Amino acid sequence: MNDQSPQQNANDAGRLAPRPFPNSNYIRPGIDDRPDLDKALTDEDKAAVARLAVRQKPKTPPAAADQPEVQAAAMGASSPVGGADEPVPDLESAFLDMRDPMVDANGYRPTKTQVLRMKIGFACTAFFLAFALAALNITLVPQELDALGGPVGGAVALSWVLGVGILCSFVATIFFLPLSDHTRTPVGRRTPWFAGGALICGLFAFALGACHTPVAVGIIWALMQIGLAAMLCALHASIGERVPDKFRDAVGTWRMVGLLIGLVFGIWFGVLMADEPSAGMDLCAVALLAAGVLGLLVVPRESSTVYSRAKPMKTSDLLVTLRVGHPTAAWRTICLTRLFASAGVMLAVAYVWFVVRYRGGVNAGLDLRLTMTMVALMGLLACAMALLGEGVTDLLRASFDNDRLVLMIGIALAIVAAVVPLVSYTTAGLYVFAGIGGFAIHMIDDALQSLAVASVPQVDRAAEYLAVFNTSATLGRLLGVVVGGFVFAYAGVFSSVFLWVALMFAFAGACGAASIVTAAKR
């Protein structure tokens, strides 16, 4: 039994406690009494400190043309459903376990909310872009040129309008991509180009409805394409740089869904605006501006690049999308296949308005509303068959594991689709052309993207090779409209364009066969 009082217990505890060291209660000025700056400073004070702080060894962000994921984003934009789903060979990618898959190219780890905003923002941006461009390219602009120049004059005018637009966009992209790499602003290096491109594109789209000659339409269209090039350069670079590897497939799926829905809605919007094409063009301009606003406000804000180091710009930066050193024979054939396939697609899609309306002859045009409805139904059928082609392509790839076989099947189907309206230039023949063509074009695009990724001869330079692959598609579209201009200028009937569609795909098939022979020899 403990008879000690509480006071005695306290005194004993005091005697047993160790004696403090001399001067152990000394407070070091500026060290021990330093306040917690996170609590002591206001948000304005923290911003001022960050602005005035000196950062040693500032980071040099990679150029867009040096990032395979940027080129993959541009590569997948051409397909109405989706592109190749295999990883792009990037040595710094998380696919090769060289980087945390949850962070972006700059090392930032976005939150779940920010990832959701990326999905919604990129999907909505793709929707409004596809909506406006589908309505303008497939229905509204061809209708306007048809009214201004007649059947033959309008088709020829459409060729040079589209050709000048593609050429301006191509040249602008060559300059805008490296210039945006060297941009240093508090809102990032891509944001100013995206915002400026959206503004220019929207303003000139408003001016389209006020044009009363084909020359005026061509000039305004070319200027609009320059703004669109700046917008798309920044958009593709943002997807590649700001979306972590872990979420890139999901963000890409959302974006492709928005693209497909916008394509369908845009075509049908053109039908509804058949009697008021000028008002339709104005609404398309609003859609382009909406794409810019959503891309800027919904997608999380890009980080500042004020403190990022910039390397001097060289002439070689302008040529990175045009050539690569020592390309292999297999790579050349893949690019040529892409070029001729893109030319065939351009011939098949760009002139569908004139092909449908004047299938009875230049003096027997269909009713305007009936033409619009038929064009919209063909577009809807092509998109639906492209979705079916997505599943069939995956099934073939899983069964045979041979992308070249998938490519040759797609090319064969595309040639069949082009031959059908040559044999039967009727409503049924055009619907068959749209259905089989949509199915085949997706197979070709998917197979070509997979082959391009697999055929990169130097993995550490994958971005440069994929950039040239994308350039071959642009040049193919330019070739398509040049051929289309000659066809409509000198052909007696508009169905002759399908012969050239078949020839372009036949050339693509010859290049594809050459790639098979080259691969067999290795």
From TrEMBL:
Cross-referenced Gene3D superfamilies: MFS general substrate transporter like domains (1.20.1250.20)
Keywords assigned: Membrane, Transmembrane, Transmembrane helix
Biased composition (Basic and acidic residues): 30-48
Keyword Transmembrane: yes
TM segment ranges: 120-140, 160-179, 191-209, 215-235, 256-274, 280-299, 339-356, 368-393, 405-424, 430-453, 465-491, 497-520
Pfam family, one: MFS_1
UniProt-annotated stretches for the region Disordered: 1-89
UniProt-recorded Gene Ontology molecular function terms: transmembrane transporter activity
Low complexity composition-biased segments: 62-74
Ranges of Polar residues composition bias in the record: 1-11
Protein name as catalogued: Na+/sugar symporter
Organism of this sequence: Bifidobacterium anseris
